Amino acid sequence: MNEARLYPKLLAGVGAGALIMAYIAQFGFGLEPCVLCLYQRIPYALVAILGFIAMKRPQNLNDILVASAVVFAASTALAAYHFGVEQHWWVSATGCTGDVSKTFTTQDLLQSMQRKQPKACDAVDWTLFGLSMAGWNVLFSIFCVHAIIIARMRLRED
User: For residue range 22-81, what is the model confidence (pLDDT) as tens digits?
Assistant: First the structure.
């Protein structure tokens, strides 16, 4: 298969595949995502969309590869930030850590007991070889940036 036709399909497949895996983890295995987990899905949706666009507009493949590399670089930064929150290296700016140092009134406490609380971003539900999903996302996003750079160099050689 021609590389120029393969790369858009890989982009779409990686983006869609990562989203499918996230939804399987959430709905199939009951792993509740926090706010930062949900934010980490956005780059994969963007890459899938870019891949589908490249399938329809192969003449824009170089620009789409550059945009995809930038998206994956942003994904790396976001996942690294989330991993740091999980490791308690810093506190999340989104306010989704498990810190309950705020002052509550009795009324606030009763209201909070009646609604489901969002998952804390520093709570890790699943690990593989000591890395959480955010940690694996850091590694995978770095891999994708490098793979796109290599793909772009290979296209230039042709």
Answer: 999 999 999 999 999 999 999 999 999 999 999 999 999 999 999 999 999 999 999 999
CA 61 – CA 59 distance, rounded (Å): 6
Give SS3 for 47.
Answer: helix
Cα separation, 54 vs 148, whole angstroms: 14
Strand partners, 131: 128
Q: Supply the DSSP symbol for 132.
A: E
Give residue for tokens 């550059």: 66
127: Cα separation from own chain's centroid: 16
In a domain, 125, yes or no: yes
Range of the domain at 140: 3-91+120-157
CA distances from 40 to 19, 60, 65, 111, 114 (A): 10, 26, 19, 30, 29
CATH number, position 128: 1.20.1550.10
In angstroms, the first-to-last Cα distance of the chain is 14
pTM: 0.83
Residues 3-22 have pLDDT tens digits of 788 999 999 999 999 999 99
